[in-house]
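can u do me a favor
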């Protein structure tokens, strides 16, 4: 379709991304973060909701109405920028209802694929920026090891020691003091590059986030768990599916969306691009660049 053609033309100026990306066929099945309106024909009245992820196979439907959509039924729907389609809800998650397209014809398939590739194109800027950040952080890590500022053994420390009196629990590692000195400058610089960015942080393979952006790194308040959850997010382990996916991804980049817990029952839908961090060829974790949907 037209979107695929436009994407191919723009790729000529995206060499930094292309040289490290040979996964297009595999990526076609990925759910791309988006924000599209959908109306689903149900009884006694149609359900209007939002789609937060789109792939060639299906969508993630969020919002208050998502939980009311019946499962395992073929439902008629109208999806913004794509049109009429049939969907089946395969299950419900904390993020919303997972739906698959049912028997799309060739015209509908083209529309869906065009939109998926269009979103891919929109993310090229984000992917390029994330890769640049990942390269910069990798150099900081490797230079520190080369200069003896921190040993490779300590950098890969997984002995997470609880910091007493913290709630949610925060942790220390043998590389935390070094990270507190080395990471703020690059992370704050990356955050400042785009007003749409919510956070830019390094995370290890187990979801441990030693140093957050300054806005989320306030000292905890004793007894105020909700405030701490939103404002004291450094030194914590985010081993939820999104956190582990970011830390353990080894492909050139990962695009994902999820509901971010901000405490007090409040969640925010996020989209992010994650790239791997390797130190002397060894996978340490990932660099997360996140944006509000």
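np, heres the sequence
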């Amino acid at each position: 379709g037209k979107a695929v053609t436009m994407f191919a033309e723009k790729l000529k100026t995206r060499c930094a991304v292309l040289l490290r990306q040979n996964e297009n066929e595999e990526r076609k099945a990925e759910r791309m973060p988006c924000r599209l309106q959908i109306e689903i024909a149900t009884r006694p009245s149609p359900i209007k909701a939002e789609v937060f992820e789109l792939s060639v196979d299906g969508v993630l439907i969020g919002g208050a109405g998502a939980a009311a959509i019946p499962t395992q039924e073929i439902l008629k729907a109208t999806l913004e920028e794509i049109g009429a389609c049939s969907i089946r809800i395969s299950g419900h998650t904390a993020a919303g209802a997972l739906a698959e397209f049912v028997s799309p014809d060739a015209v509908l398939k083209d529309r869906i694929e065009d939109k998926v590739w269009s979103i891919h194109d929109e993310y090229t800027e984000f992917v390029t920026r994330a890769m640049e950040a990942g390269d910069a952080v990798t150099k900081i890590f490797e230079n520190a090891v080369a200069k003896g500022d921190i040993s490779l053994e300590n950098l890969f420390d997984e002995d997470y020691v609880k910091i007493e009196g913290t709630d949610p629990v925060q942790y220390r590692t043998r590389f935390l003091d070094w990270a507190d000195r080395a990471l703020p400058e690059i992370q704050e610089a990356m955050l400042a590059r785009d007003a749409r960015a919510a956070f830019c942080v390094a995370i290890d393979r187990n979801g441990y986030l030693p140093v957050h952006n300054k806005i989320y790194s306030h000292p905890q308040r004793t007894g105020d768990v909700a405030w701490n959850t939103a404002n004291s997010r450094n030194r914590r382990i985010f081993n939820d599916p999104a956190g582990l996916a970011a830390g353990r991804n080894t492909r050139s980049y990962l695009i994902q969306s999820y509901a971010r817990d901000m405490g007090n029952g409040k969640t925010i839908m996020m989209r992010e691009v994650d790239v791997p961090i390797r130190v002397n060829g060894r996978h340490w974790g990932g660099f997360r660049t996140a944006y509000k949907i």
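The domain at 124-292 is CATH 3.30.450.20 (Beta-Lactamase). hope that helps!!
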